[in-house]
Design a protein that fits this description.
Blueprint lengths: L7 E6 L2 E6 L9 H16 L5 E6 L22 H10 L4 E5 L2 E3 L1 H8 L2 E4 L4 E3 L13 H9 L1 H10 L2 E3 H7 L4 E2 L4 H21 L22 H14 L5 H11 L5 H16 L2 H16 L15 E5 L3 H12 L3 E5 L3 H20 L5 H9 L1 E4 L10 E4 L5 H12 L7 E4 L6 H6 L7 E6 L8 E5 L6 H13 L3 E5 L7 H18 L3 H11 L5 H8 L2 H10 L12 H7 L13 E3 L2 E3 L2 H13 L9 H21 L6 H11 L9 H8 L1 H15 L7 H9 L6
Parallel strand pairs: 2-3, 3-4, 4-6, 5-7, 6-9, 10-11, 10-13, 11-12, 13-14, 14-15, 16-17
Antiparallel strand pairs: 1-2, 7-8, 15-16, 18-19
Helix pairs in contact: 1-2, 2-3, 4-5, 4-9, 5-9, 8-9, 9-10, 11-25, 12-13, 13-14, 18-24, 19-24, 24-26, 24-27, 26-27, 27-28
Bound molecules: (S)-3-Hydroxyhexanoyl-CoA (3H9).
Length: 705
């Protein structure tokens, strides 16, 4: 028998019944919560001493949605839509007292109430779209009746949260609490009860107000043509993800259907999406994000306090990091090597803050305050007060080691030293510091103030509290942190390197750059790999290949096409040509590149054949998953879902595909293994199936557990 306390209790304040939900962590509308609220509501309705009802929550938030963990199980009565209908139909006024975040099903409960009052810091939203869903308990039908179709389409299609002040302006809530939320909600409920009583008695007609049921309200008029255009834009921007467009169209349906028909329409669309691969993938991502920050070895380990952060180097990466730090409220000290470089760095940083202000994302005052919190100079002695220094200097071992040795004599012995290296070994960099246990890798992705991913790299010696500090800083920066072990390219670049190689093999084998790009863009990537290579520039990878040439495994298949492009000065977009040619900003397929590819294939003795989009995708995914399995087997990633997050947040992989490891589970690990075995037979050394992949495919296990 379940001995946990019931999540719903009832209290009285005078004639007002308080239905209190207490279901940590976020008061999700689980079956127990729904039935508890329903029972309490029915009892309050028949209780003659009750004149009105307030629904409120304990803990940090109002109901944050349906219980995602219950999806996939039979819903169990009462369902959330049925509960919302019953609340709306109640004979006594029901008021939602909202604090924290009223999200998804929580917002829908509030919408079904006859009044909504929120505290000033509360936010409301329908974020189902981020789970590949749409609101399924009346959100798409009741929201437009309160705030109009255009605003409702915006909220449902993006999942954005609305702060209490805006919600009040738009009519989503009736009041913002000025005192204690519960007391204000009780007063408001008493007032509604008074109004209703007068209305039903027919007395004092001028003051009388019947219960305001959201579902009975007419949808305010709107510009239908403008909404149609907006929905087209929403669908185009979603690049294959279904929920934004479906949600927007359901909102639009509210204008043409009565409530019952609209609710039925919404329910059908919700059920379809709930059963979809897209929603399964996005729910996987939701839980993956929450799991990523859990590092078993760090449980109970306190982070070191960090207020002042140094950034060594103010190039593109250093400037982006400095901007992200200032945005998060840190005191920032940036040092370059020369006065000129410092000046250039300062204007780079200032430019980024300025652009944020010009785009309206932040105010001019905020931009100025962030710049005022940033000191830029050319003497690393300025790092003395820093609690953490992040180096973002040239990716060269000697340069970084010299810096860490010098920093050891400048900062406090307990200050953390972080390297932003992409490919060097943080162990070797750390060895140059006076206390290698305070060294950690913080691998940002460019542009660092925009990209959400940070790989946190533990060296063999990183102290637990230093690692905990890295996670705490990443959290404050609002980044998604993933723990990676010390290996070449960590998680992301190591897998990306296999991805890149397999793409280049496919060129020799018969595909053309634009065909591979088209296959991956159809899969949902915003840009195919060759377009991305051109955007990033081909020269950096070329320099690396030259550096590693002496130690390259000569038995491994090597495709020279990229080297040849670089030898011709084709470094990508910045030189007007790379895998494509660029004229007036437009990308065009270049017959010259096709000639180079064909000649190289002939030289390598490869008989080219046409390669279809499915094979392109399968080869890419199999190459990535094999390397991912190797990374997992070596303990360089904590869990398969961390690898998925790296690709979604660092490399533009569509979240609604769930990441490469999730895809592998869906395709079947047997299929992936067969593809890798074909690679081994065709491409030779380096493409041996990862032992973990073999073991899992043979035992029928999945990366997802
Ligand atoms: C929906 O409502 C459908 C309806 O329209 C129709 C139905 C018919 N369920 O994020 P945090 C857990 S769809 C179950 O770290 P924060 C979460 O896994 C839903 N569990 O905290 C974590 O657990 P753990 C629409 C949930 O303070 C813990 O709570 N609603 C749910 O950074 C703490 O979470 C949403 O999509 C849930 N709904 O952020 C809202 N939500 O500790 C989703 C959270 O074991 N939630 N958990 O890892 C959020 O956006 C954030 O969690 C929130 C708090 C902003 C609420």
């Amino acid at each position: 028998m379940d001995s946990s306390p019931h999540p719903v209790t009832v209290r009285k304040r005078g004639a007002v019944c308080l239905i209190v939900i207490d279901h940590p962590p976020v008061n999700a509308a689980s079956h127990a919560v729904r039935s508890g609220v329903m029972q309490a509501l029915l009892a309050a309705e028949t209780d003659d001493t009750v004149s009105a009802i307030v629904i409120r929550c304990e803990g940090r938030t109002f109901v944050a949605g349906a219980d995602i963990r219950e999806f996939g199980q039979p819903p169990g009565d009462p369902t959330l839509p049925a509960l919302c209908l019953r609340i709306e139909a109640a004979s006594k006024p029901v008021v939602a007292a909202i604090h924290g975040t009223a999200l998804g099903g929580g917002c829908e409960i509030a919408l079904a109430c006859h009044g909504r009052i929120a505290d000033a810091s509360a936010r409301l939203g329908l974020p189902e779209v981020k789970l590949g869903l749409i609101p399924g308990a009346g959100g798409t039908q009741r929201l437009p009746r309160l705030i109009g179709v255009p605003a409702a389409v915006g909220m449902v299609a993006t999942g954005r949260m609305m702060a209490a002040a805006e919600a009040l302006d738009r009519g989503l809530i009736d009041a913002v609490a000025t005192g204690d939320l519960t007391s204000d909600a009780v007063s408001f409920a008493e007032k509604l009860a008074g109004d209703t009583a007068r209305a039903s008695e027919g007395a004092d007609a001028a003051m009388a107000l019947p219960l305001r049921r959201t579902g009975d309200l007419p949808v305010p008029p709107f510009d239908a043509a403008a909404i149609a255009t907006e929905i087209d834009v929403i669908e185009r921007k979603a690049r294959g993800q279904l929920s934004p467009g479906v949600g927007a169209r359901c909102v639009l349906a509210a204008a043409t259907m009565d409530l019952a028909a609209g609710l039925a329409h919404e329910r059908g669309a919700f059920a379809n999406l709930l059963a979809s691969e897209q929603s399964a993938a996005l729910r996987h991502v939701f839980f993956a994000e929450r799991a990523a920050s859990r590092v078993v070895a760090l449980e109970g380990v306190a982070a070191r306090p960090v207020n002042c952060v140094g950034v060594a180097g103010a190039g593109t990466m250093g400037a982006g990091i400095a901007v992200a730090l200032a945005e998060a409220g840190y005191q920032v000290i940036v040092a370059e090597r020369t006065q000129d470089a410092a000046e250039a760095g300062r204007s780079r940083i200032e430019g980024l803050h300025q652009r944020a202000a010009e785009s309206g994302r932040i105010s001019q005052q905020a931009a100025a305050a962030r710049m005022a919190a940033t000191i830029v100079g050319h003497d690393i002695a300025a790092f003395a007060p820093c609690d953490l220094v992040i180096e973002a200097v040239f990716d060269d071992l000697a340069v970084k080691q010299d810096l860490f040795a010098a920093l050891s004599g400048i900062v406090r012995p307990d200050a953390v030293l972080a390297t932003n290296t992409s490919y060097l070994d943080p162990n070797q960099i750390g060895a140059a510091a006076s206390q290698p246990e305070r060294v950690v890798g913080l691998h940002f992705f460019s542009p660092a103030h925009v990209m959400r991913l940070v790989e946190i790299v533990a060296t063999g010696q990183t102290a637990p509290d230093v690692l905990a500090t890295a996670f705490a800083v990443a959290r404050r920066l609002n980044k998604l942190a993933v723990l990676a072990g010390c290996c070449d390219g960590f998680i992301g670049n190591r897998i990306f390197s296999s991805y890149r190689k397999q793409c280049e093999y496919m060129l020799e084998d018969g595909a053309l750059p634009h065909e591979i790009d088209a296959a991956m863009e159809a899969f949902g990537l915003p840009m195919g790999p060759f377009a991305v290579f051109d955007l990033a520039g081909l020269d950096i990878a070329w320099a690396r290949r030259k550096r590693l040439a002496a130690t390259r495994n000569l038995a491994e298949r090597y495709v020279r096409i990229a080297d040849q492009l670089c030898e011709l000065g084709r470094f990508g977009q910045k030189s007007g040509a790379g895998w494509y040619v660029y004229e007036n900003g437009k990308r065009r397929v270049d017959a010259g590149v096709t000639t180079i590819i064909e000649a190289e294939a002939q030289r390598s003795g490869v008989q080219r054949r046409s390669i279809g989009a499915d094979e392109i995708r399968t080869r890419i995914i199999a190459a990535m998953v094999n390397e991912g399995a190797r990374i997992l087997g070596e303990g360089m990633a904590q869990r398969a879902s961390d690898i998925d997050l790296v690709f979604i947040n660092g490399y533009g992989w569509p979240a609604w595909r769930g990441g490469p490891m999730f895809q592998a589970d869906r395709m079947g690990l047997g299929t992936i293994l067969e593809e890798v075995e074909r690679m081994q037979a065709r491409d030779g050394a380096g493409w041996e199936p990862a032992p973990l992949l073999v073991e899992m495919a043979r035992s029928g296990r999945l990366f997802g557990g």
